[in-house]
Amino acid sequence: MDEAIIHWNCNGIIHHLCEFKLLLQEKDPFCVCLQETHLRPGQPYSLRNYSIVRKDLNTGQRAHGGVAIIIKEHFPFNQIQVNTPLQVVAIQILIPIKITICSIYLAPDEQVHTANIWNVVRQLPTPFIIVGDFNAHNPLWGSTRLDNRGEAVENLLESRDITLLNNGSATHIAARSGAFSAIDLAISSSAISDMLRWTVLEDLYNSDHYPCEVKKNTAKTNQQISRYWILSRANWEQFENKVLMAVEGQFEVSIELITNIIQQAANESIPIGGGETMRRRVPWWNAEIATAIKEKKRALHVYKRVPVVENLIVYKRARARSRRLMLDSRRKSWTEYVSSLMTDSPPSEVWNKVRAIKGRSSHRQITHLRTNGADITTNSMEIANTMVQYFANISSTENYSADFKLIKLEREVALNFEGDNDLAYNAPFQFFELEEALKYAKKSAPGPDMINYQMIQHLPARVKQALLAIYNKLWQEGDYPTVGNQR
């Protein structure tokens, strides 16, 4: 399990929609387990790029309670039907191992015994992770007191093959008193508990519960980090001078030499970006909201250190201000976005914005593929080979009729490549052709050598001439070096 599971008592998913979208953008979990969704039975609710499994509380009163599991749409899953009167919803998901995830909400005034919870556990395929708001107090997971609910959960932990993942951190702050408590729990099959790490996030996201995160418990490795040139801050004059100085005195210029010279000049003249992946902010994000959220987090930290009424008031004011700014900015952003579509807008622009509104991406990696009509593979090589074989079979000549094969054979004539080398298309490339090609070259990501078209465009004329000579040699001899094949 490489990605995160978030569980959170959101205290109303519609009411805290802005905060929830911000949480998704910042943490990018593959699965979110929600409690107290406050959705009425049958009330429409959808989220771009996510599938939703939910159980709403139907009491005939105002919407309250309710649980849901929100899953990234490209993760295959099946809903597990759990026969229980409790507010529970469960799925089995492939990540790439099959694992059961269950979201549970036990209301404070609900009579719950060990047998009720065990009835849920025994219906879940193993291994499983159960997360949610248990409203259970027990010093075992950080509470200051023990109640009947906490004792029931403790009995379950002692008698069954499951493990508590909590580390004693507080997960809830009382709206009125400001008292902290630990009532949101995460338990798992003992077989996978050593693989998992549970943490509480730093921000409440304007609920009265902290979101909690369950991730794979592995040490960080030195993974290759994607680097990129910050071309907007490039010193092109210095770049050209560095290249000129490097080629001075060189009687023979090879593709390897030019590559090394460009790379060295770029390293000294163009800043390099990279590091941890920067996730896109929601479209209504701005500097004022960022500052307000920082102030809210700072106020919360102060209150946690010094829990007095004055600090609680400061925190609540900061929370209200950040929420108001997010709501106002979201409304304004949506109005501006929609109003930018005019009757004379090009169809391409209209459809791009329609796809953006629907949350559809044209660049999406295939992470799971069903093979043989049943099996699901997550291995990238198996996925590639399966797709290659599929398309090869579709385009195979074996699918042609006998009559078509005969006509195809008669009409296909082998090309004769013998001819006059003096023809125009065999002539060497001219310098103006190189300049013209560079002028209209589209910006694209560089290859492994990290050399892009902008760098070649800014090469001194003398170096471009040398590069042109190399291109002509490659064109005439057809002997491409290893370095050139990387681009």
Briefly say what this structure is.
Helices cover 38% and strands 17% of the residues. It is an alpha+beta fold and 487 residues long.
What is the topology?
Layout: E1 5-9, H1 17-27, E2 31-35, E3 50-55, E4 67-72, E5 77-80, E6 87-94, E7 98-105, H2 114-121, E8 128-133, H3 148-159, E9 162-164, E10 172-173, E11 180-181, E12 184-189, H4 190-193, E13 196-200, E14 212-216, E15 227-229, H5 236-247, H6 255-269, E16 272-274, H7 287-305, H8 309-339, H9 347-358, E17 369-371, E18 375-377, H10 380-394, H11 402-411, H12 431-439, H13 453-457, H14 461-477, H15 482-485
Parallel strand pairs: 1-2, 7-8
Antiparallel strand pairs: 1-14, 2-4, 3-4, 5-6, 6-7, 8-12, 9-12, 10-11, 13-14, 15-16, 17-18
Domain Endonuclease/exonuclease/phosphatase: 99-211
Protein name: Endonuclease/exonuclease/phosphatase domain-containing protein
GO molecular function: catalytic activity
